[in-house]
Amino acid sequence: MDEFQIPRTALITGASAGIGAAFAHVFAEHGFDLVLTARRGDRLTELAKTLATQHGRRVHIVAADLADPTAPARIEREITAAGITIDALINNAGYGLPGNFLDCTWDQHRDFLQVMVTAVADLTRRFLPGMIARRYGRIINVASLAGLVPVSAGHTMYGASKSMVIKFSQSLALETMASDVHVTALCPGFTYSEFHDVNGMRTQVSQLPAFMWMDAETVARQGYDAVMRGDMVCVNGRVNRCIAFITRVMPQWFIMLVVKRVARTFRRT
Questions:
Q1: Distances in Å between the alpha carbon of 197 and those of 20, 184, 203, 220?
Q2: Which domain holds residue 244?
Q3: Vertex 193, ends 189 and 194: CA angle to 5°?
């Protein structure tokens, strides 16, 4: 156990696959017990068995859909009823809505914002007071490189939601610094997972060069290290850090032209 004698517990949303499942393995390796939540209870059950076998950690699962506004409260109730204290929160659940803004109904946008923005703030508000009172807490909000770079047409709400998560994390990190509560906005780029299968973009993103991709385990390990160090923002990988830097220092009109051209070619492909 790396940092403590008494086992701590991490709550991970969107834990059934991809970066969420990778985070479960990483936190278990570092001595954390786990609470895992996602929509697919069957996958959570299988993952819980694997984690218990490989790492010997206690795993509690809560099947919940964060698109339901009542889900955060239900997750909290089940955790409290089980007598579990949350020491680390990984807000990882997320997905994308492809196409232009008007291609989706408002109900789809509403559910998207509930998962990507409201549930992040809701769960944080529920578990942060206990972390501050115990003077220990670790919060990772999985954002995206998309929240740091200029936007293009399409996927209208995605970059906007991730920008909010980044700003929220930075402000919260400053507010909680004196209580030994670390808050990190994790900003991966293209990551091998089911994300692009769910939003129907697998064919398009498969055209991207291999050097732009990272695996979920590496992303999760870098996120764990970043929050333990107290980094407010962690951009995964050298390529992504280079992209984020260039978009900060180059004239925005030029960057927007480049993004527009690349996006047009990408969507046509």
A1: 16, 27, 9, 20
A2: 9-268
A3: 120
The total of structural domains in the chain comes to 1
Phi, psi of 44 (to 5 degrees): -60, -40
Q: Which of 136, 158, 192, 224 is catalytic?
A: 158
| pLDDT surpasses 70 at 92 | yes
Which range has the worst mean pLDDT, 9-23, 208-222, 248-262?
248-262
Number of C-beta neighbours around residue 263 at 10 A:
16
Residue 114 DSSP class: I
Active site residue 224: no
In a domain, 262, yes or no: yes
CATH assignment of the domain containing 26 = 3.40.50.720
pLDDT reading at 212 higher than 90: no
pTM over 0.85: yes
pLDDT in tens, 185-202: 999 987 655 554 444 454
SS3 assignment, position 76: helix
Which residues are within 8 A (CB) of 120 and not within 5 positions of it... i.e. 6 or more apart? 91, 141, 165, 168
In-domain check, residue 138: yes
CA distances in angstroms from 195 to 14, 26, 66, 189, 264, listed in the order given: 11, 20, 16, 12, 21
